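Troubleshooting: if your tokenizer reports a length mismatch, compare your output against this known-good record of 317 residues.
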Amino acid sequence: MSRNFIIFGKEFLIPSDRNNYICLSKEYTNLAREKQQKFNTYKLGSYSSNDLKRMYEYGCGLINEAVDQSIQILLSHKVYEIDSERFIKKYYKPYFNWDKYCLHMNDNNEFILSNENGLTQYKNIEFKKQMSESELSAKYLEELAEDLKNQELPIRDGNEISTILSIGIIENIENMKYALIDALKDTLDYEIECISDEDKDKARSLVNNFDEVDKNLEDKIILTLQLDPFNVDIYRYIINNNIGDHKDLASLVKYFDISLEDIVNKKLSTLIPSLILSEEKALDIKQEILNYMNMYNVKKSSVLDSINSILEKIYDI
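Known-good structure output:
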């Protein structure tokens, strides 16, 4: 059954053949956020080579938990012939790149690894050992650390590597849905209509060329949403440029389960002027902040903390 929304006073239709993909995407997005939260609370000490190895292995453990949950989904569809090992080896391996996040290759073809001096950048390193066919292995990290421990290269910031790895957890678990889709197609001949890479590329291109003075901008935004409603940059553009009725947008955000906390908080930071002279003005700003947070289901905001702090100072005067 198709689903209709109104945005910019116009109908936005979600075709029925997309519903299964949307439901699956939302399920894996929530699963990825859950695992990312667990990963972000995993505390390490001095970022030694052993620390990075432990981070890799802990991430593998979280990914394996998601694999087990994927197997439960397959069982609910009466697919009994695929266990975790086969799922990883045959279906998930093409989408797995957690090892590349732990040995992060950037635009300069540099890999990030750690040694006893901290997180260090190494150039043109070839992996000594790839992960095994049926499990997510970290053993080759030890060989690399041994090979490279005497090289002196620039230190990477620990917060930067934590951010990179946190993003990696999200990507590797969200992409697991494609492995599940492949498994369902292979075993049940059950095909789920996905958002194609071509549509994603078209959506990115349209977003990059949005122009506020374009009289057809709203139509282009709707077209972009139809191509890829999970593209966060579409919502970022609408919020940052105050386009249309945000209540309509909020209904889309809720349906697709899009996390806009960072985008909304950045927008909220523009609401507080450099000088607030009255309690009335501060309360008006606080209410506007709360309206945004409620609309987009943002649970916490440093901007709200700031306006509360300003109000406390006003009350103390």
